[in-house]
Amino acid sequence: MSESDAPQPHPLLRRMVDVRSSEVRAMLVSFAYFFFVLSGWFVMRPMREAVAVATGVSKLPFLFAGTLTAVLIANPLFSALVVRYPVRKFIAITYQFFVANILIFYALMTFVAPREGSAGDIWIGRAFFVWTSVFNLFVVSIFWAFMADSFRSEQAKRLFGFIAVGGTLGSVLGSAATAELAPVIGTPNLLLLSATLIELAVLCVMRFPTQAGAHEENVARHADVPIGGKLLAGITNVLKSPYLLGISAFLVMLTMGSTILYFEQADIVGKAFADRAARTAVMARIELVVQSLTLVPQIFLTGRLIRWMGLALSLAFLPFVSLVGFAALGTWPVFAVVATMAIVRRAGNFALNNPSMEILFTVIPREDKYKAKNFIETFVYRAGDQVGAWGYAGLAALGLGMSGIAYAAVPLAGIWLMLGVWLGREQGRLASRAS
Q1: Using an 8 Å Cβ cutoff, are 251 and 381 in contact?
Q2: Are 50 and 280 in contact (CB under 8 A)?
Q3: Position with higher pLDDT, 335 vs 206
Q4: What angle do CA 42, 333, 282 make, to 5 degrees?
Q5: What pTM does this model have?
Q6: Rg of the chain over CA atoms, in angstroms?
Q7: CB of 110 within 8 A of CB of 206?
Q8: Which band of pLDDT confidence, cut at 50, 70 and 90, is reported for residue 35?
Q9: Cα separation of 314 and 318, whole Å?
């Protein structure tokens, strides 16, 4: 279909996003796909956070170690699917495997260990923490790999911000549903809602338009042909590429900062709120505020800001916020400050940093978009968690309190900022060479 034959975007849609006629359907299906993925995840996220708070800061590094091990096992299994099956099929297989897992956890929480605080409840909760920590990385990484494979760098800079709005709306729905329904129907029953939402995401994948944009090569990209290649290419290609290594280092610094903040939040919330229902509700409300504050910038500003500021400054924004935030938390280690920092940092991550990071992957080879990208966003991401978790434990063992650990994260944020600027400039160079 030519640009002139395609249905014209609604004027209101054109005010929100600079979308071409031939891109509208692909953009809206992508929007819906991300909505269902994140709504399904954010129904479960407050449940995971309540487990973390109940477990205690001293035991969290062991849960993070379990997560890293699980990711290490899952990554080559996913790569085997990428080698063997066409894109839509291996995405559907992966998501439906996770749906089956959700139903297993529902049965365990409902029939095996329904009493809160029992030994079975504790161990099922810890297994749920590890599993959800793997689940959220894979489902989101697969979504953005599919986007990077479907849209060019120039399209991504215009459209990814608006597509991300679908995820934000899904996050708001999921968080709100958990906050309102958890005290009424109990948390296990929310898993059935999450499973339904993930199945709707699979439907979006299967209905994604073959020709995603104005360029004909997307027809071949979504044909029923496996990507193929080598099973371990995701690892080896990262190690051979300075650009992919730079993205890996950027993500490690992001996750280290997030883990430090996560531990401080768990410690402060654990002291401020007594029972699991209260902790689940307050975590859900924090998520609700984060996603609500993210909406307006994503709808009207993200795409325009990335093009106006340039990718380098867009990637430098969150490190700068983190630098200021950790300095403030070091000075005032109280609930109001940690909640404010969590809200501002995560809103900035969703509104600007995440779309900017996903643009980085639009200029790499197709095989790397699924294998190397998935390796970076699962194993490398969780490796960053481990560095942050055990680093936090080590600093605490040396006698540093919450203030001292927060101050120690300030220079890390400075290095992270400089790396973001380099990556933004390098992406521009690679995009120019490819055009």
Answers
A1: yes
A2: yes
A3: 206
A4: 30
A5: 0.75
A6: 21
A7: no
A8: very high
A9: 8
